[in-house]
Specification:
Blueprint lengths: L5 E4 L9 H15 L8 H7 L5 H12 L7 H20 L9 H10 L3 E5 L4 H9 L9 E3 L12 H10 L6 E5 L2 H9 L3 E5 L14 E3 L11 E3 L10 H13 L1
Parallel strand pairs: 1-2, 1-4, 2-3, 4-5, 5-6
Antiparallel strand pairs: 6-7
Length: about 250
């Protein structure tokens, strides 16, 4: 059987706008609680997002902005664990909803018996916390997250892992990403990709994406088309995705 069989989603910035008002705030809460004078502003956090993975981001921050501070990996891991707890509290308060069109598309995919998966560098705890406050985690056949593979995005490892677990060829899948690193990762695995940008990624390079959009849109709230051909559609739905896969197969 060929054709579109699975949708694979990144999480942070793709399923929900979690970075600026979620992870960044939680990082700062963890730093303050640990007695550190670190404060990651919106602007600084945008720069730090060039590094994937929370623990890796903290190490990069220390090496680049605070070379005067020495910190063991165990301490960084403890800070990251505390940050995840604060992040879960923010989610429980309902402050981070899914992006436009996400729940609608997931619901339609399930009704059409398409398979769903998650491919992300964030920790499993953060993924399940987000899903618990928005949708059922059981909707996703595979949740590949965090340190489950040796190399994080932009390496293709996390997508390669999902394809192996689902026993599907890349040509039968579509990925959804929000960042340049994510796009590099999915394309390296051979998966056609739709990008929905956010404030932090709007200036990234996405010329190899199948579509680049403001979001997935809704029937009464069209998305902005930045790159690619939606073939007249004003929001992302299953018929559009099927056409994109068919066209990719022809090309």
């Amino acid at each position: 059987m060929s054709g579109l069989q699975a949708l694979i989603f990144d999480v942070d910035g793709t399923l929900a706008d979690t970075e600026r008002d979620g992870h960044r705030v939680a990082f700062n809460q963890a730093f303050a609680n640990a007695g550190l004078d670190w404060d990651w502003s919106i602007e600084l956090y945008g720069k730090l997002l060039a590094v994937t993975g929370g623990k890796e981001r903290m190490r990069f921050y220390l090496n680049t902005y605070r070379p005067d501070v020495r910190m063991e990996d165990a301490k960084i891991a403890d800070l990251h664990k505390a940050k995840n707890q604060y992040y879960a509290q923010l989610l429980a308060q309902g402050g981070i909803p899914l992006r436009p069109g996400v729940k609608r598309l997931l619901t339609a995919a399930r009704a059409a018996n398409l398979r769903l998966a998650i491919s992300t560098t964030t920790t499993p705890e953060n993924v399940f916390a987000l899903l618990a406050n928005n949708i059922d985690a059981d909707w996703f056949e595979v949740i590949a997250a965090g340190d489950i593979v040796p190399k994080k995005k932009p390496a293709s490892d996390i997508y390669d892992y999902v394809l192996v677990q689902m026993q599907l060829p890349a040509a039968d899948c579509l990925a959804f990403e929000d960042s340049e690193n994510g796009l590099i990762s999915s394309l390296a695995a051979g998966i056609e990709t739709i990008v929905t940008i956010n404030d932090y990624t709007q200036n990234h390079r996405f010329d190899r994406a199948k579509l680049v959009l403001s979001d997935l849109g809704e029937p009464d709230r069209p998305c902005q088309i930045i790159h690619g051909d939606t073939q007249g559609s004003t929001y992302v739905d299953l018929p559009l995705l099927m056409r994109l896969i068919d066209r990719a197969a022809i090309n």
